[in-house]
Amino acid sequence: MAVSGDATQHSGRAADDGDGTSSKTANYRSVFDIIGPVMIGPSSSHTAGVVAIGRVVNEVFRDEPETIVVDYYESFAQTHQGHGTDFAIVGGVLGFATDDRRNENSLEIARRRGIHVSFVEKEGDSPVGHPNTAIVSVSNSRRSVQVVGVSIGGGVAQIKRIVVDGFDVRPRGTLPMLLLRGHDSDNQELGEKLRGVCLIGDVRSFGGQDTDERMYEYDLDSPLTQRMVEDVVHGDDRIFYLR
Amino acid sequence: MYLTIAELVEDAERRQLPVCELMIRQEIERSHEPREAVWEKMGRNLDVMQQAVADGAAGEGVHSTTGLTGGDAVKLRKYRERGRTLSGDVMMQAVQNAMACNEVNAAMGVICATPTAGSSGTIPGILFTLTDRLGLGRDQQIRFLFTAGAFGLIIANNAGIAGATGGCQAEVGSASAMGAAAAVEAAGGTPRQSAEALAIAISNLLGLICDPVAGLVELPCVKRNAIGAGNGLIAADMALAGITNKIPPDEVIGAMDDVGKNLPRKFRETGLGGLADTPTGRRLKESIFPAKKNLSAFRKTESAT
């Protein structure tokens, strides 16, 4: 892809780190990241965290896939077998939640739906420098999406790269986040709607290929309330809510 | 939010509040959920832990599909009934609870990750033993989990909790430290004593590698949770006795991060080192995954591009 991964920073909608005691980034923010999630064994990195990566793919792709290709790196390449990682990541791509028992049968469900699934154990280092790295590529005749995710432990995932519709988004990584496709006026409008929502860092944007639109990245401090989801996210197909 | 143990302890002392209360308030502020919702959610996590601990030790116990683990919690239950344990019944109850919960995890049952699934037996091991020992009610058990979570968040954000990045010290080590700190608070200790218990618990497990046989969360993970629970209780008792770690907790967490970063990859959840790389470990892997290439037609190995 000839698209630059460089992000543009947008000032004016910055957020601090809670009480401002430190500027260090917190990968884990909720007590339930630590005491939780409730899940099916045996490994939170290899199942719950991977379902989360798959669900991001599902949210961005928003269509029935024809093929799903998963590239595993490092620890994932060595140990995905027997951990249920394959079931978990495909379950996530199909839109299942972490504690959905359908995850156990996700490969069979995908097969019955005519989706071709393959797993590749890569021998080299992770391209994003994390031992639990999975690159998920999903496509059908209409479009394709690639998501680079890492499972950082305890069922928590980070998203390092999203390639969709000619955009090459390199987010900061921590979920939840909102992506908005549009122009600066759309960014201003969404900024207004999110007034009162705590953001981590400035809004950033990424240019696309053959389009004057940009993809705007909003890193959220905490999940949106149900009301916010209904008011802001639902019914607007330019917005991707990744959590 | 609290990013260091020092900040957490100082705030607890200044505001004369237990750590669990600080954690509850931080979660309410972050999630915009009412106190009852946050409280109830932790209550449901507690219920899952209780169920796992009970299931793992009931009847003939639970067994994983590979046959590598299962039934050991039941053996401990029967052994305890004979009343002649060497280290006393409290310690063996903690070990039984920890192993029961992790056997359920290995058998792909439902557990609560604390902080991870691989280390999910350690905190229930400590908690439900103290429930009997100290007569903790349901509210106190939920508070225990908030305290453990408060300390765990700081460990996770400063060192990490994944075996793949930090080894077993990051999983069972973290769980043991969280449980030790929460045990001190449940027993009436001070926030500073909780922090000392955390520092002692991590210090004692520093450098513990992650070496799962066949890459599965079974061997030695189930027994590592036993040591996590035992170590947590020992560290809590030491702190309650007034013993300090000398090296401050935040520095101990920093050391754990440094050790984890310097562990060779074979010791970070790849199933390629330690017990996994013994003759027996390799043989078990071969018997569980005979000729990997035949297992799945669509799985293939590629060189890096």
UniProtKB/TrEMBL annotation, chain A:
Task: List the cofactors.
Answer: [4Fe-4S] cluster
The record's InterPro entries line, in alphabetical order, gives:
ASB_dom_sf, Fe-S_L-Ser, Ser_deHydtase_bsu
Bias (Polar residues) occurs at 1-11
Q: Where in this protein does the record put region Disordered?
A: 1-23
Q: In which pathway does it act?
A: Carbohydrate biosynthesis; gluconeogenesis
Whether Heme counts among this entry's keywords is no
Molecular function terms, GO-annotated: 4 iron, 4 sulfur cluster binding; L-serine ammonia-lyase activity; metal ion binding
Serine dehydratase beta chain domain location is: 30-103
EC number(s) of the enzyme? 4.3.1.17
Q: Top enzyme class of this protein?
A: lyase
Keyword check for 4Fe-4S: yes
**Source organism, top-level taxon:** Bacteria
Instruction: Please write the reaction equations for the catalytic activity of this protein.
Output: L-serine = pyruvate + NH4(+)
* Keywords for the protein's UniProt record, in alphabetical order: 4Fe-4S, Gluconeogenesis, Iron, Iron-sulfur, Lyase, Metal-binding
Example GO biological process term?
Answer: gluconeogenesis
User: What does the sequence similarity comment in the record state about its family?
Assistant: Belongs to the iron-sulfur dependent L-serine dehydratase family.
The name on file for this protein is: L-serine ammonia-lyase
Q: Which organism is it from?
A: Bifidobacterium bohemicum DSM 22767
Automatic annotation (TrEMBL), chain B:
Show where the Serine dehydratase-like alpha subunit domain sits.
15-276
Keyword line: 4Fe-4S, Gluconeogenesis, Iron, Iron-sulfur, Lyase, Metal-binding
For this protein, what reaction is catalysed? L-serine = pyruvate + NH4(+)
UniProt-listed Enzyme Commission number(s): 4.3.1.17
As cofactor, the record names:
[4Fe-4S] cluster
Protein's pathway = Carbohydrate biosynthesis; gluconeogenesis
* Family in the record: Belongs to the iron-sulfur dependent L-serine dehydratase family.
Q: What is this protein called?
A: L-serine dehydratase
| Natural source organism | Bifidobacterium bohemicum DSM 22767
